[in-house]
C-alpha cells in the first residue's frame, strides 16, 4: 500500500478529519478517511505522537471502574479512568491528574506504563499509554460538569458478574477480565 495524497477535509474543535488516497495492491486508488486529535502535517505524521492514557487502577484487592455516560455511544458503560495529555505534560503527571479529576483518588504507586498502543485502528491514529497503578484515598467525584461519572472499586466476584451482563469499553472489558480471573 502506498499513500499518494493526504488532505485535511474538516477541522473540528477536538477532531480533525483527513482523507488519504492510497494505491492498493492491484495498483488502483482507494480513498480512506481517518480522524486525529492532532493537526497532522503529512502522511508521515500519522500515529507519531501519543494522545493520552488509560488507567488500570487497583486498591488492595479491588479494581476501579467508572460507570459513565459516553456521548459517542449514547449510553452508560463501564470504562477505565482515562484522559488526554496536555501540552508539555509528562505521562506520570497526566496519570495523576486524570485519576484525581475523575475520582478524587491519588496515585500511591505506578506499577507499569506500557508503550503507546493504537486506540481505534480502523478510524484514528490516536495512541494511548496504558498505566497500571495502585490508588489511595477516597472516591470523591470529578471536576467536570460535562461528564457523568460514577467511580467505584469492585471485587473480583462483582467484576465477573458485570462482565456477563454490562456494556464495557474494549480496554476496560479486557482489564476487567484479567483482573477477575487473577491475572492482574
From TrEMBL:
Keywords: Hydrolase. Gene3D superfamilies: Nucleoside Triphosphate Pyrophosphohydrolase. Its cofactor is Mg(2+). Residues 46-176 form the Nudix hydrolase domain. The keyword Transmembrane does not apply. GO terms for biological process: nucleoside phosphate metabolic process; ribose phosphate metabolic process. The keyword Disulfide bond does not apply. One of its GO terms (molecular function) is hydrolase activity. Pfam families: NUDIX. This is NUDIX hydrolase. The lineage of its organism: Bacteria, Bacillati, Bacillota, Clostridia, Lachnospirales.
Amino acid at each position: 500500500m502506498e499513500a499518494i495524497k493526504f488532505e485535511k477535509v474538516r477541522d473540528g474543535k477536538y477532531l480533525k478529519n483527513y482523507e488519504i488516497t492510497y494505491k492498493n495492491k492491484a495498483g488502483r486508488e482507494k480513498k480512506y478517511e481517518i480522524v486525529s486529535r492532532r493537526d497532522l502535517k503529512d502522511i508521515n505524521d500519522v500515529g507519531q505522537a501519543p494522545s493520552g492514557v488509560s488507567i488500570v487502577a487497583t486498591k488492595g484487592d479491588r479494581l476501579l471502574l467508572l460507570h459513565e455516560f459516553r456521548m459517542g455511544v449514547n449510553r452508560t458503560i463501564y470504562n477505565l479512568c482515562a484522559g488526554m495529555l496536555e501540552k508539555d505534560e509528562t505521562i506520570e503527571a497526566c496519570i495523576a491528574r486524570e485519576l484525581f479529576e475523575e475520582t478524587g483518588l491519588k496515585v500511591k504507586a505506578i506499577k507499569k506504563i506500557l508503550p503507546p498502543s493504537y486506540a481505534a485502528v480502523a478510524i484514528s491514529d490516536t495512541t494511548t499509554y496504558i498505566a497500571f497503578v495502585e490508588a489511595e484515598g477516597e472516591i470523591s467525584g470529578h471536576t467536570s460538569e460535562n461528564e457523568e461519572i460514577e467511580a467505584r472499586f469492585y471485587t473480583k466476584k462483582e467484576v465477573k458478574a458485570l462482565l456477563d451482563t454490562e456494556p464495557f469499553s474494549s480496554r476496560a472489558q479486557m482489564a476487567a477480565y484479567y483482573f477477575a480471573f487473577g491475572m492482574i
